[in-house]
Amino acid sequence: MEKPRIKNEDQYKALRDKGYSKEKSARIANTPNAGKKGGEAKKYEAWTKQELYEQAKNVGIKNRSKMNKKELIKALRNN
Length: 79
Known about the structure:
Elements: H1 9-17, H2 22-29, H3 49-58, H4 69-77
Helix pairs in contact: 1-2, 3-4
């Protein structure tokens, strides 16, 4: 069985050093634009529910289809 690939190894290692689990570190490091800085992201409250849902899907949040907008924001912030 092939080992899963990490898109951003540096970010993965930094997250592991901070004490994040292997699973959470991999999820974060494998999201699109992982580790890129730009400062242009709008606050989650300005996102549509669909945008929040897609982001939750990208980072592997479970039960996201049952969440409302407020719950999606909380889950994304605490992921």
